[in-house]
Amino acid sequence: MAYFAPYLGDDRRVDEIDISVHCDVHIFEWLMEYIHQPAKPPILDAGSVISVLISADFLQMKPLTKHCIEFLRGALAEVLRLPIDLSCVSDNLLGELALHLEADEIERLRDKKDKIASRLYTRKLEAHLADEANTLHRCAFCSRIFTPAQRNWEQCPRAPPLLDFRGNVIAEHVPNRQWDVHRAFPVCELDMCAPATARRSRRPAHSSPDDDL
Ligand SMILES: [Zn+2]
Ligand SMILES: [Zn+2]
Fold it and tell me: Domain SANT and BTB spans what residues (predicted)?
């Protein structure tokens, strides 16, 4: 448990130390069992995985955190059916989980109360946008959204045509430097924890795309 490392420095001659723990006794037992046999972790189930995950993350037990995330991937539908509060699962952990899920897996989740789906989508979108190949630009001439690869093959209908070295007429999209994907798609900002209705109402239904500029 890396969490305790700063309290247990090598230079300190401590034979015994008292640790008081505030957590579910069953979860604590689970953790103790795990520590004695990390290669053979005790069984996880939908009812315990969130508590173990949060404890493991807090105690900086990285392999266990990873183990829980991998288990959670397959058990998410069941976890959502249980009355478990998921608001205390950190954004970092959700980001890890989102990396293990395909977008359509998130879409298939039955999460009527939106305990986790919106936050997972947000994290998934963030991860996609962080990939350079998926960087979104907006054309200064035609206002279309394009990726760097798209710019190589898609003609811009409004850009002033230029001649390339072979004498071909080309018209490439030109990125509008003032346009910011995070402002254009507010779902991708840190206000993602706001209820879905509040988020939707931030953007008037009839706003034109130019309102974001
Ligand atoms: Zn264009
Ligand atoms: Zn973002």
Answer: 1-69
